[in-house]
């Protein structure tokens, strides 16, 4: 059985992440979408909020499981018997960072990273853009599903 691991900070998850999840789920027997718990990154959304959003985003995929990890992605990958990591590439600008990470992860563990090119309609989405539009009350429905839009809006109303 081939299990893929798609790690990320998902602060918040977007249609761009959903695109990668949907396509990756078709390539492996099981896909683990895992939230990297890095408080040093100072995410806007709590771990609980992000896990909740990921559950909502992925509930229609029977072979997708949501998880979380603290520490190295490859340690979690080994713990869960993961065959390969999955990452999305949106543009040339992502390449250098992703290349470095993929090489380091392979050196640390022997685990390969498979890259999916983002669909062109999602290539310019980023979580910080979504946070910025949300902070000023702009419409997010082009970037995230309804249920996540509600969470983002509620977050900014509570700040
Ligand atoms: N569609 C839309 N947006 C995407 C995207 C896609 N397909 N892929 C990435 N992004 C965006 C995210 O929204 C985020 O936007 P932001 O910077 O504006 O907030 C940005 O790209 C990066 O997000 P993410 O994919 O979550 O990566 P990250 O850099 O936050 O986290 C980890 C990368 C979590 C995978 C990595 O840091 C990790 O594995 N950490 C654990 C420790 C470790 O093992 N380190 C590596 C050692 S080699």
Question: What is shown here, in short?
Answer:
This protein has 159 residues and is an alpha/beta fold. It has 6 helices and 5 strands, in the order E-H-E-H-E-H-E-H-E-H-H. Strand 2 (30-36), helix 2 and strand 3 (64-69) form a beta-alpha-beta unit.
Query: Kindly, what is the distance between the CA atoms of the first and last residues, rounded to a whole number of angstroms?
Result: 45 Å
Which stretches are low in confidence, meaning pLDDT under 50 for 5 or more residues running?
none
User: Numbering strands along the chain, what is their spatial order in the largest sheet?
Assistant: 3-2-1-4-5
Q: Any idea what the shape is?
A: globular
Order of helices and strands: EHEHEHEHEHH
Sheet with the most strands, sense and barrel status: 5 strands, parallel
Strand coverage percent: 15-25%
Alpha-beta classification: alpha/beta
In DSSP terms (H or I, runs of 4 or more residues), the helix count works out at 6
Q: Percentage of helical residues?
A: 40-55%
Ions, cofactors and other bound molecules = coenzyme A
Compute the average pLDDT.
96
User: Cα-atom Rg, whole angstroms?
Assistant: 15 Å
Number of distinct beta strands? 5
Strand and helix map with partners:
Elements: E1 3-8, H1 15-25, E2 30-36, H2 47-58, E3 64-69, H3 73-79, E4 84-89, H4 92-109, E5 112-117, H5 127-135, H6 146-158
Parallel strand pairs: 1-2, 1-4, 2-3, 4-5
Bound molecules: coenzyme A.
Residues 7-11, 14, 16-17, 20, 36, 72-73, 88, 90, 101, 104-105, 118, 122, 125-128 line the site of coenzyme A.
């Amino acid at each position: 059985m081939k299990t893929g691991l798609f790690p990320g900070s998902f602060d918040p998850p977007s249609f761009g992440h959903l695109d990668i999840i949907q396509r990756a789920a078709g390539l492996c027997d099981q896909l683990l979408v895992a939230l990297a718990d890095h408080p040093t990154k100072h995410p806007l959304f709590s771990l609980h909020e992000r896990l909740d959003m990921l559950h909502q985003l992925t509930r229609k995929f029977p072979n997708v499981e949501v998880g979380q990890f603290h520490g190295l992605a490859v340690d979690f990958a080994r713990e869960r018997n993961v065959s390969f990591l999955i990452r999305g590439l949106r543009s040339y600008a992502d390449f250098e960072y992703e290349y470095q990470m993929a090489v380091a992860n392979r050196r640390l563990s022997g685990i390969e990273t498979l890259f999916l090119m983002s669909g062109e309609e999602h290539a310019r989405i980023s979580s910080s853009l979504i946070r910025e539009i949300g902070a000023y009350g702009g419409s997010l429905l082009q970037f995230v599903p309804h249920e996540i839009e509600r969470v983002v809006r509620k977050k900014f109303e509570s700040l």
